[in-house]
Amino acid sequence: MKTQPDDLLPIGLRDRLPAAAANASAVEQAALGVMHSHGYDRVRPPLMEFETSLAGRMDGVSTRRMVRFTDPASLRTIALRSDMTPQVGRIAATAMAEAPRPLRVCYAGDVARLAADQLSPERQSLQIGAELVGSDGAAAAGEIVAVAIAALEAGGAQGISVDFTLPDLVDILSAKALPLEAGQVDAVRRELDTKDAGGLRDAGGADYLPLLYSSGPFEEAIDKLAAIDAGGALASRIEGLRQIAARVEGHARVTLDPTERHGFEYQTWFGFTLYAEGVRGALGRGGTYRIGGTDEAASGVSLYVDGLIDSLPEAVNGKVLFLPLSHDAMRAEALRGEGWRTVAAVSDQDDATSLGASHVLQGGAPVAL
Amino acid sequence: MKTQPDDLLPIGLRDRLPAAAANASAVEQAALGVMHSHGYDRVRPPLMEFETSLAGRMDGVSTRRMVRFTDPASLRTIALRSDMTPQVGRIAATAMAEAPRPLRVCYAGDVARLAADQLSPERQSLQIGAELVGSDGAAAAGEIVAVAIAALEAGGAQGISVDFTLPDLVDILSAKALPLEAGQVDAVRRELDTKDAGGLRDAGGADYLPLLYSSGPFEEAIDKLAAIDAGGALASRIEGLRQIAARVEGHARVTLDPTERHGFEYQTWFGFTLYAEGVRGALGRGGTYRIGGTDEAASGVSLYVDGLIDSLPEAVNGKVLFLPLSHDAMRAEALRGEGWRTVAAVSDQDDATSLGASHVLQGGAPVAL
Questions:
Q1: Closest CA to A107 of A45, A174, A166
Q2: What separation in angstroms does the CA of B314 have from each of B124, B205, B279?
Q3: A16–chain B Cβ distance below 8 A for any pair
Q4: Cα of A362 to nearest chain B Cα, Å
């Protein structure tokens, strides 16, 4: 047998062979199981839909990197989903508009994009998420963070940490406690993004300098942030963060980076990023947001579990029962019913050991090899 | 909340909302579970790959109806998979070329196509399949048929029937027992396809007329076929069919339509189609084939389970425990560990009954509503 050049996959795409596929399915089922146990119902939107529909529900969703094509039926542009969150937003706003709130929905599926970027060469990811539609309060956000962490734990993640941010921090402060001139707001945001103290001062944001030092382990950082908040403009935000942090105590290490905005283009007051030991990059991201079109408040999380799947050890093969040619089919069926995994000979050359069997059926009973 | 025109999905695509999504996931997990118990390992190929790779592994796979686009990285054409079988064939022939034979692999995933056709308006389907690579004998084919039927049974299909065919029947007969002139073979095939007795006679295929009457319930039809087989050209085929039919006795009604070729463009000696009561159209199709490129013998089945999913009754909601605001989170976690599904209040307006709860947590214990 030969490998032809055509057998190579395009860059950024890959097969998961049995060991990796088993881990992927286990992570997917474990995460969905946790979400189900917290009351989240799975929905299954299609692989592709109108480009305008995918782009219209959320700020910061660009269709530029999506696989797009002209629908021969409607002559409109269809795009392959690169993120399932806008699809779930669409469902919440339309087909499930009349469902009682808060509405809890979850999803799992492959998403894809036309081109890779420098940070991640992958063009397909397994996305798993949960959305709590109808509330963006601290209780809702805290539930989402707790469910996300429990889902990752169930999937085998270890040493989970979560980094909180306040995406609208500068808006809040500049409106009240630390006024900025209209032309300065964007510059101050930019310098906070790069954490450049000199630049921040030059941009007229000297009052914002202490924010650069309000990051790190949650308890210390939140105290520093509270100390800055002289006018009380952030009081409800700070109280909310403390409430969310309390929800996940003992399940994850919590840090605060209140000025982090990257990746939170459509979040409102709260955003978070999930990490785990031994997994490169973020495992998930979420927060509070408003669904485009209806402006309904929501809290949600998207987990990108490929890194976690890759980090897991190969599952150990369980017991496998070899069924010789002309075995008793009824007996084999009964043994599968008892939990046995079987592998049947289809010719007299089939070899139990090379096929990975641990037992062989002899006289109606499994005998260890 | 309003429904915008953009929220409508392209024709042939749809969302599965909670009740339907639960049935889809249940069917998928049940079918994969059956395949796993018979020794099939799941593989997860990507959503898309090079067009040549999807088309090259199997006769009869046309890329005309696939979603295709130019890969900006390689400048080659990538296609969205419209069938996962060629992907599994590629894996068997390359990455798993050295794995022991017979190789048992299974898969489940969404497949899509650019345009619908008259018979089926859907542009996305959930495909679940099993391939036994390394054998196309009656034992292998029989296992595939039996596993497919068990997978559909586990998914809730009732009144399953399976229709057998012999895709190379005319080749075999015309080569030996019932010779035809070279120019006649195609015409005879065509008339057999349309089951047109007059046309068959006109095409010079009078000897083939009895084949038109060798269809129907398996036992009678196979006897008729055997009676035609004067020269014994079909003896091994007939013996193989009997062996496969015996495998599924009691699990499915078996019929024979030996001249049916439609949908069996890449099958070799054996093909079959699966049906279930209350489900329109075929639920699956399979048979014996050879993997393109390596020409390795294989037996396999593809199940298209959307019709089955649509036919299932809505799952009954199980017990759901409402957790009031400021409930004991540890206690809730313990109850989920015992199997409870919970739904937590995120505001004091959240109503247990409208959220579908059957119980409410009071004093640390679930109390029926």
A1: A45
A2: 22, 51, 16
A3: yes
A4: 18
Q: Residue B294: list chain A partners with CB under 8 A.
A: 1-2
> Residue A134: phi, psi to the nearest 5?
120, -5
Cβ-Cβ pairs closer than 8 A, A with B, add up to 261
The percent of residues above 90 in pLDDT, for chain B, comes to 82
Q: Left, alpha or beta for B261 (phi > 0: left; psi -120 to 50: alpha)?
A: alpha
User: Which of A4, A28, A323 should one mutate to test binding to chain B, selecting the residue with the greatest count of B CBs within 10 A?
Assistant: A4
d(CA B357, CA B345): 11
- Are the beta carbons of A76 and B25 separated by less than 8 Å? no
Burial code of A48-76, b = ≥16 C-beta within 10 A, e = fewer?
bbbbbbbbbbbeebebebbbbbebeeeee
Kindly report which listed range (A259-268, A309-318, A341-350, B59-68) carries the lowest average pLDDT score.
Answer: B59-68
Residue B1 pLDDT more than 50?
Answer: no
CA distance A301 to A143: 10
pLDDT of residue B144: 98
Q: Cα distance from A365 to chain B (closest Cα, Å)?
A: 17
Question: Which of A16, A143, A345 comes nearest B346 by C-beta?
Answer: A143
Whether complex ipTM tops 0.85: yes
- The rounded Cα A73 to chain-centroid distance in angstroms is 33
Q: Please state the length of chain A.
A: 369
CA distance A283 to A31: 13
What DSSP string runs through A45-78? Answer: --SEEEHHHHHHTSTT--STTS-EEE-TTT-SEE
Nearest-Cα residue of chain B relative to residue A328: B247
Question: Contact B100/A41, CB-based, under 8 Å?
Answer: no
Q: Which residues of B touch A28 (CB under 8 A)?
A: none
Give domain limits for chain B. Answer: 9-166+252-311, 167-233, 320-368
Establish whether B90 is an annotated binding residue.
no
The distance of A214 to chain B (nearest Cα, Å) reads 29
Cα A167 to Cα A43: distance, rounded to the nearest angstrom: 28
| Protein fold of B9-166+252-311 | BirA Bifunctional Protein; domain 2 (3.30.930)
Query: Dihedrals φ, ψ of B48, to 5°?
Result: -145, 155
Nearest-neighbour CA in chain A from B311: distance (Å): 17
Measured between alpha carbons, how far is residue A73 from residues A69, A354, B10, B111, B121 in Å?
12, 51, 8, 18, 11
CATH of A7-166+234-311, one of 3.40.50.150, 3.30.70.3270, 3.40.50.720, 3.30.930.10: 3.30.930.10
Return d(Cα A67, Cα B295) in angstroms, integer: 34
Backbone φ, ψ for residue B312 (5° rounding)? -75, 145
Residue A302 pairs in a beta bridge with: A129, A285
> Mutating which of A7, A49, A353 best tests the B interface, going by the most B Cβ atoms within 10 A?
A7
B285 touches chain A (CB under 8 A): no
**pLDDT confidence of residue A60:** 62
How much is the pLDDT for A55? 86
Q: What is the pLDDT of residue A265?
A: 81
Flag whether residue B262 sits within 8 Å of chain A, measured between CB atoms: no
Q: What is the pLDDT of residues A74-118, one digit of tens each?
A: 999 999 999 999 999 999 999 999 999 999 999 999 999 998 877
- Please tell me what DSSP assigns to residue A286: E
B135 in reach of chain A (CB within 8 A)? yes
- Which residue does chain A place closest to B93, by CA atoms? A1
Chain segment B83-96, per-residue pLDDT in tens: 999 999 999 999 99
B131 is in an annotated binding site: yes
> Could you tell me how far CA B365 lies from the centroid of its own chain?
45
Please give, rounded to a whole number of angstroms, the shortest distance from the CA of B348 to a CA of chain A. 11
Written as six digits, the tokens of B114 are: 């650019």
